[in-house]
Design brief:
With 159 residues, the protein is α/β, with parallel strands linked by helices. It has a single domain (2-157), classed as 3-Layer(aba) Sandwich (Uracil-DNA Glycosylase, subunit E). The chain is 36% helix and 19% strand. It is built from six helices and seven strands. The strands form two sheets. A four-stranded parallel β-sheet has the order 3-2-6-7, with helices on both faces. A three-stranded antiparallel β-sheet has the order 1-4-5, covered by helices on one side. β6 (107-111), α5 (113-127) and β7 form a beta-alpha-beta unit. α2 (41-49) crosses α6.
């Protein structure tokens, strides 16, 4: 079993919660979200908010909080081969209670279909709150260009 090693990012001003599935090997090594250099999450955020998240965990965390965004993952512990979502087994979901009790979260988004699948299975019954599925920013989602991702994320986050 691999245990999620990155604490959630949120504060009492967070209004949007974005959940991934489980951190990639690169993200676990960096001990911060979307750490794979080919993951397009930070590039999408930079364009959407016309603001640079920077290159360090500290500047990225400050970026998220500045824009009232909370980030975490659906899965807190699982068996996984490398970074392959398809290999995920024996899931233990994260507890969203600390975020939902602290922050005035208006909307919940999931980054990709794997996060959506596990959110619906494990967390929706607990939270009772629907999550909007966004196209994955993962490099594995090669079918979507950066512009496609920006358009889809903009339409969801700002409507």
């Amino acid at each position: 079993m691999i245990v999620h090693n990155i604490p959630p990012v949120f504060d009492e001003h967070s209004e949007i919660l974005i959940l991934g599935s489980f951190p990639s090997v690169k993200s676990r090594e960096a001990a911060f979200f979307y750490g794979h250099p080919q993951n397009r999450f930070w590039r999408v955020m930079e364009v959407l908010y016309s603001d640079c998240p920077g290159d360090t965990a500290e500047t990225k965390k400050a970026f998220l909080l500045r824009h009232h965004i909370a980030v975490w993952d659906v899965i807190g512990e699982c068996e996984i081969v490398g970074s392959s979502d398809a290999s995920i087994r024996n899931v233990k979901a994260n507890d969203l209670t600390p975020i939902l009790q602290t922050a005035p979260i208006r909307r919940i988004f999931v980054n990709g279909t794997t996060a959506a699948k596990y959110y619906k299975k494990y967390l929706l019954p607990i939270t009772g709150r629907e999550a909007v599925t966004l196209p994955s920013t993962s490099p594995a989602n090669a079918a979507k260009s950066l512009n496609d991702l920006i358009s889809a994320w903009r339409a969801a986050l700002f409507n």
